[in-house]
């Protein structure tokens, strides 16, 4: 009898495993077949190219990826280069200011839009319009505006304000703020739309309860509404952060990394070494460091966002 019971349990376990495998691999086969090209693209293009980049960053490749393995020499040379260190510092400074100001201004504009103002659709379109432009166009427009001779400074001086100065793109100490203005002009509208969608998802009963309890409006936004918009905030941070890490075209169009190398960024460093400087190994080492930075930021966030939920449940 005992052997029979054990046999039945083993049979039930095997049947359950077969059912699980059948449900996993044989369920909805047409959809899985349709997804194969996408999976192959991800494996070959993204994973394959990433591994290729990391491998050749440990070689002394110059014009072509044919160099021999040299270990960490490219990375040692990378961090000994002042241009790379300046580019990293610039990206950190620009990124911190851009992230904070984009989120803050986007949320404040969304709060204003949420007051059911007249011509809301027109204002929303106007604020979102810069996001439809490429960073190249944005950079060129703001380059004309900030040009010390032909732009705002020259125009106001011709009108009689001889002492007016607005030469930020030619000033090494102010050039990052020039980039910041152009970046905010393009990105704040998109962040506003995201925040506005989150605000419109808040139940009206919450506002009624807050008014009955006498909670000030600003306190309701900070203590109640913002925590409820956690998903929207995370989405905004991820989108803005990804744009900051790959910052390149705005810099090329507005300052081209100048004056000197005062507005250099890592993406421009990678491009210059790979295509202009003829040093693929050095460019790939810089690209690998950018990838490592993204991984260091994203892995803890992904663990807290998904892994932590599984443990708590």
TrEMBL record:
Biological process annotations from GO: transmembrane transport
Cellular component, GO annotation: plasma membrane
Localization terms from the record: Cell membrane
Residues in ABC transmembrane type-1 domain copies: 88-303
Keywords: Cell membrane, Membrane, Transmembrane, Transmembrane helix, Transport
TM ranges: 33-55, 91-113, 125-145, 174-199, 220-245, 284-304
PANTHER family: ABC TRANSPORTER PERMEASE PROTEIN
Protein family: Belongs to the binding-protein-dependent transport system permease family.
Protein name, UniProt field: Sugar ABC transporter permease
